[in-house]
Write the structure tokens for this entry.
Amino acid sequence: MREVAVIGIGLTKFGELWDTPLRDLFAMAAADCLEDAGVGRDQVQSAYIGCMTSGMFVAQEHLASILTDYAGLKGIAATRVESACASGGAAFRAAYLEVASGASDFVLAGGVEKMNDGADATACLAAAADQEYEVFHGVTFPGLYAMIAQAHMAKYGTTPEQMAAVAVKNHDNGARNPKAQFQMEITKDTVLNAVRVAEPLGLFDCSPVTDGGACVLLAPVEVARKLGKPIVKIIGSGHATDTIALHDREDFASIPVVGLAAQRAFQQAGIGIKDVDFAEVHDCFTISEIVCTEELGIFERGKGGPAAEAGETALDGSFPVNTSGGLKSKGHPVGATGIAQICEVYAQLTGRAGDRQLKNPRRGLAQNMGGSGGSCTVHILEVES
Ligand code: COA
């Protein structure tokens, strides 16, 4: 396999973008990405585009063709990738493998979702849960994650205050991110006193409903070198699946698919979590960030909550998590999220993260998850010094 680098990124503003159609979200992100990479449209050979459920949100399918056409890339090989909220991560992995295999040199990995266009977002999202055993009985994603939170509280003593600390920290970071949906700081009281969504989760424990698009361009490391780009290599790519339904799992207080994907990425990279400086983690709900930091091995089981409350995951903490603001504050346009995470890791590694820049990070990790843990990708990126 060839070594592969990210050589450019592009990201739209995230939020309620009522005036921007789905195709424009992708075209804008692709244009910014190619300009950033300094690569012409005629050089792009292939694209993989993560999108969860454009058919339900905006009644548009056959997505890879229409999106590449409107992005000025008509004719290239293009594939839409779907793995619920992990669609972006899965698209990134497919693009990585195509470049690594030697089949193509310039491959675009994108993600897009238009969630605010009048469709019932909760019902669209619930399509990624088990219809017969979960959704027919009335449970949707906030309810499923509430069950995970209840189990984690019962098993490890995790508290609402610890979950609130995740939201406060992610809003602090999002306030420094001009692309974020919610660019405002909040207090713990705001989170704890917010309207209840599914006990113990309130409004500020939830990621929002978001429109947005993101793209990154991949190329072989030797090509990136010739272009004079900073060398940001993909050193580990892990992908795993699990049951969709929570009731088929042994322990609701864990999300095993995350550990499995991480193990595969670390094995390829030949390093462990202690060699990584920061991570973008799938915080679709505050409890999710806590559980995922434990599954990734950043903290021991049951210690993710206390660590968040102690500031360990803040920008100046021992292991910064979600410097972008995460899904909670930056927003969660489901198909785009996995690519947006890679954009943030790349920005941090190349010193382009503005007010939220970490001090000389060398390796960053992006963990993107589908549903309540039915699928997951983990990617580790390293900048050459
Ligand atoms: N965090 C903070 N504020 C939020 C918010 C969130 N997650 N979601 C909405 N708001 C704010 C809006 O900005 C709006 O504020 P305003 O009145 O000042 O303009 C207000 O709350 C009401 O917004 P609205 O869009 O009517 O909220 P809603 O009740 O329809 O939706 C949720 C709130 C929590 C139900 C919705 O965001 C949601 O479903 N989130 C989870 C998404 C999800 O499941 N993703 C997949 C994960 S696997």
